[in-house]
Write a structure and sequence with these properties.
Blueprint lengths: L14 E5 L3 E6 L16 H10 L10 E2 L8 E7 L2 H9 L5 E9 L6 E10 L5 E4 L6 E12 L3 E8 L6 H8 L20 E9 L6 E5 L15
Parallel strand pairs: 4-10
Antiparallel strand pairs: 1-2, 2-4, 3-4, 5-9, 5-10, 6-7, 6-8, 8-9, 10-11
Length: 229
């Protein structure tokens, strides 16, 4: 029976929060790509974790398949399947997965909770934006709940009802409350992008056993959060 790879081979800043024969779920740090990009094929969570599970087995054919993706500057829960079949099964049922993010927004939201709905499209520069014509974009819905307010910021729990590229960043920016540190959609300076993939809840794709995971917010968020949330 093969031994698990030593912890010393675990990529810096990455924590494993769940693993079984089918899934590997990690806490991705801010600044790390989720999957390979043409301009950065090796330094990404998928490649690093694939290398991690192969350590000590030079002929290993072990593979990981990304179930979800996070922007480079977004931290938090990232799910990998250990087979293509299970990845596709999770993709087909991804809308049923409960996905909660922690975000700190510029300004004060007028309402304590609500749902933002728009149709998102993407231009040639890969920038996402809302369109009025449903035939020109994909439906995006974000439910939010205010956690705390400051003099010029609002911390929210944002639930993705749908899951579109840059959805949270775009929708809050378009209502006048961009995510702090978002250099593309908001240009509000901060130490980092104030967005964290916080909680996931779903049925295991093979056993149907309920799985609920939470990634504790990084230290950056502590000054924006109440003790009880």
């Amino acid at each position: 029976m093969a031994k698990n790879p030593p912890e010393k081979f675990l990529p810096r800043g990455v924590r494993i929060l769940f693993e079984d024969a089918d899934l590997l779920i990690i806490e991705k740090p801010c600044g790390l790509l989720s999957v390979p990009a043409r301009y950065e094929p090796d330094r990404n969570a998928l490649s690093l974790m694939t290398n991690f599970i192969r350590k000590g087995q030079s002929k290993s054919r072990k593979e990981l398949f990304a179930v979800n993706r996070l922007d480079r500057e977004t931290s938090g829960l990232l799910v990998f399947a250990k087979s293509l079949v299970l990845r596709e099964a999770m993709h087909e049922d991804w809308q049923s997965v409960k996905k909660h993010y922690l975000a700190v927004l510029a300004g004060k939201l007028p309402q304590d909770e609500g749902i933002i709905e728009s149709y998102l499209a993407q231009d040639e520069a890969y920038r996402v934006f809302s369109v009025k014509n449903p035939r020109e974009g994909k439906l995006a819905q974000t439910r939010y709940r205010v956690l705390a307010r400051g003099a010029n910021w609002t911390a929210v729990c944002a639930e993705l009802i749908t899951g579109r590229k840059n959805q949270i960043r775009v929708q809050f920016s378009e209502i006048g409350h961009p995510v702090l540190g978002d250099r593309m959609y908001g240009k509000i300076r901060a130490e980092r992008l104030a967005l964290h993939a916080w909680k996931l809840a779903f049925a295991h794709p093979r056993t149907s056993k309920p799985i609920e995971l939470e990634s504790p917010p990084p230290e950056f968020f502590e000054k924006y959060l109440p003790r009880e949330r």
